Amino acid sequence: MPDFDLSDDCAPGAGLSESWLTEPGFEERPQVDLHTDRAHSARVYDYLLGGKTNFPADREVGDRVLAELPGVRADATAARAVMHRMVRRLAEVHGVRQFLDVGTGIPTAPNLHEVVQAVDPACRVVYVDNDPIVLAHSRALLTSTPEGRTAYAQGDLREPERFLADPAVAATLDLRQPVALTLINIVHFLSDEAVHPPVRKLMDALPDGSFLALSAATADLAPERAEIASRRYAEAGITLHFRSRERVERFFTGLEPDDPGVVPVNRWHPEPAGASGGGEVGVYGGVGRKA
Ligand SMILES: C[S@@+](CC[C@H](N)C(=O)[O-])C[C@H]1O[C@@H](n2cnc3c(N)ncnc32)[C@H](O)[C@@H]1O
């Protein structure tokens, strides 16, 4: 694990969120340069989800998007909720007990392991993200049941060999047994050229019977909303890559599609009471099995 500098931004009173300062164990954290002067996708998303782990630069982007798209908070909630439904189904219906979640985001209850360990406490989960703030909050991801296990590996989706070599992965996952690779709301930060080769490498590293669960932003459903979000994120230096349904389906080439295929996430096994969000969300999701 790399050594990080404790930047001036981390000094109490320098704009850190309250949750950071009051979380137990703050003083014991690895030293981290959070680059809080720049907006970051994990923290903008946290802000849109109503979280507290964000900074003025993140809130500025979020507020600009919210000013034009007041519904974006509900969209973010629905975009996260599909992760809960996908991993619950993977555990309940497909019997998956191991999960590799890349692009985890800032912990937001329930986290992936809490959902799958409610199905079987023996489930094992490795979380991976490239944002040091997720590392700094990773304690909340390490609250496994005694029967299961969770681990956090700092890493980048574009460099799968590096995080697969992290001892935490070998100590947590048995790569001879099926694993679900979950890429939820991450691939729209990467171009096709950047993201397809590592996703292929990861699926190649997993045995038959493994799954890919993925969601990705699209401009198919609400092009004007996608355009506004794209412009506001771009102003903060974050490029969003929107994909058509066909381009999202490309991630599942060679995999057996799970019902109902690639669909808008609010239509992916929605909760009966509509808890998964009523409106159309500009994100596609799907699950596929490596046969
Ligand atoms: C929008 S958040 C999604 C979080 C979570 N998966 C969810 O859906 O609630 C995207 C996350 O992907 C992470 N991320 C973006 N690009 C990444 C990359 N190349 N490698 C690893 N993580 C990345 C960000 O740091 C952020 O935490």
Quaternary state reads: single chain
The bound ligands are: S-adenosylmethionine
Instruction: Look at the structure and give the CATH class.
Output: Alpha Beta
Overall pLDDT score: 87
Brief sketch in words of this structure:
With 291 residues, the chain is an alpha/beta fold.
Can you describe what's shown?
The protein has helices spanning 18-22, 41-48, 56-68, 72-92, 112-119, 132-136, 160-164, 167-172, 192-205, 223-235, 245-249; strands spanning 98-102, 124-129, 149-154, 180-184, 211-217, 256-257, 263-264, 283-289. It has 291 residues and is of the alpha/beta class. It has a single domain (72-289), classed as Rossmann fold, CATH 3.40.50. Strands 1, 2, 3, 4, 5, 6, 7 and 8 form an eight-stranded mixed sheet that branches. Helix 2 crosses helix 3 and helix 4 packs parallel to helix 5.
Tell me the layout of helices and strands:
Layout: H1 18-22, H2 41-48, H3 56-68, H4 72-92, E1 98-102, H5 112-119, E2 124-129, H6 132-136, E3 149-154, H7 160-164, H8 167-172, E4 180-184, H9 192-205, E5 211-217, H10 223-235, H11 245-249, E6 256-257, E7 263-264, E8 283-289
Helix pairs in contact: 2-3, 3-10, 4-5
S-adenosylmethionine is lined by residues 41-42, 45, 80, 83, 102-105, 129-131, 134, 156-158, 184-186, 189-190.
Give descriptors for this structure:
291 residues; alpha/beta; Rossmann fold; eight-stranded mixed beta sheet; 11 helices; 35% helix; globular; disordered N terminus; binds S-adenosylmethionine
